[in-house]
Amino acid sequence: MNHEVIDGIPVLWAPAPGPLEAELIFGCGARDETLRTLGVVHLVEHLAMSTLPRLHHDHNASVDLELTRFTCSGQPEQVVDYLGRVCAALSELPLDRIDREAGVLEAEDGRVAVPQTSELLSHRYGVQGLGLAAYRGPGADRITVEAVQDTLFRYFHAGNAVLVLTGPPPAGLRLPLPAGARPDRAGARPALLSGRSWRQEDVPGPGIALHGALADAALMAAVAVFAQRLRDSARHALGLTYDVGGSLDNAGAATGEHTVYLDAREGQEQTVSELLWHEALRLARDGVTEAELAEEREGMREVWTDPRNTIAELGHAAARSLFGETYRDAPARLDALAAVTPDRARRAFADALRTALLVVPCGVEVSPVLPDGTPVPRHRCTHHTELPADGEVFKPPLADRLRYSAARKTRFVVNHAGVWAREPDGEIHHVPFDDIAAVEVRGPARIVYGHSTCFVPVVPDLIGDIGAAARAVDAAVPAHLVYHASALRSAD
């Protein structure tokens, strides 16, 4: 891997067959946003790409949880032209196109992770950082010009960029981006959960997340064996699922989530969910075989040493550089895998299982326990059992309370500490005012979102005349956390 610097931007390149490929990578993604500004990085990417003329070579751009990429392949002069145009657009973004690109983004409805992974990340991290993967945000039409300009200033500059190429930098290549300092992520909110729990969500199948070091070769190998066992059983032996997938999601400080997920044939969600946990327990208890480890080593060797993987390997090195983390090349990673024994893999998986988060489709009931018999509790967004004694209490309309037992149990309370709601089943939700992630205004209604993933709906369907309740919320919540529901989405 070769290292150069052009216009203050590090350039990593290595030769690879085929046309010249390029990725201009910025160290920012959805995890750098807030619920109030969710989608702003994607909007910046769209605004920049909207300035390009029709190009007759492969080019694209994308945003995921941690990175924004502008990519292209073609003749050297085409790559030079594309990268120059992207840098020029980022230096002078067409802010007058925000309304039009907002509509394009809504039509695209791009998500940064599959539903199971999104919910697992939200489960672990709340409405912040990686946990934002589960949320749609206010809609691009509710993102302010000031938020776009702030995002440009903080992230889209030479100090937060790396260029990777599958060949030497072509003649005439310039990267005219403004200078800037590498973003400081030291103040990021920590994970909400370090332990284990399970919950139901609107997902097409179950998923599991294990927290640990992303470079832990023993855990990586064990998780790969685990995913393959699920393919063998759920798909090939039983025909209950089509897709078994997974991801590594970086939470910073070289740690994050090893996730595995499955979809489920209609009506088989319960069986697939139970099978996932059964296979997890079996691996933690009985371990893996040397033959399974050898198969995974060979599979990873084929992928990591394939010349067609050069651009991905360069991108991996660039990402680690952007976040100040150690990059280990493919030979080093393969050496680490070669040192993994069946016992090391089993112990790494068993240790990580104590951090397991499990998500299952709505309606699926499970009772997972760890190998030592410790139960995995069902997740509750708050642990309150009673409404506060102080505060203003709001009830459903009298007619509803007379007709429906559910209405007689429903209550909404506002006090100095925040908002509270009791559902008909007795579960209590609470969002403190000092932990509000955002408030969505839907006509007279307010949806109050907390960083803990708990939310409290202040809506007429629940408590009738909500004027006083809405005014109490409006008076307590800072204006910069409030947004009106997107005009590009249905009222549902």
Strand order of the largest sheet: 1-2-6-3-5-4
Shape verdict: globular
Low-confidence stretches: none
Structure classification: alpha+beta
Evaluate the radius of gyration. Answer: 25 Å
Number of H- or I-type helical stretches:
15
Word description of this protein:
- The structure is a single chain.
- The protein is of the alpha+beta class.
- 35% of the residues lie in helices and 22% in strands.
- It has helices at 40-49, 76-91, 98-108, 115-125, 145-155, 217-237, 269-286, 290-305, 310-322, 330-338, 342-353, 398-403, 405-409, 460-463, 467-476; strands spanning 2-6, 9-13, 20-26, 59-63, 68-74, 161-165, 197-201, 207-213, 244-252, 255-262, 357-361, 392-394, 411-415, 418-422, 428-432, 436-442, 445-450, 455-458, 482-484.
- Helix 1 packs across helix 3 (98-108) and helix 8 (290-305) runs antiparallel to helix 10.
- The longest helix is centred in the middle third of the chain and has 21 residues, at 217-237.
- The protein starts with a strand and ends in an 8-residue tail after the last strand.
- The model has no long low-confidence stretch (mean pLDDT 93).
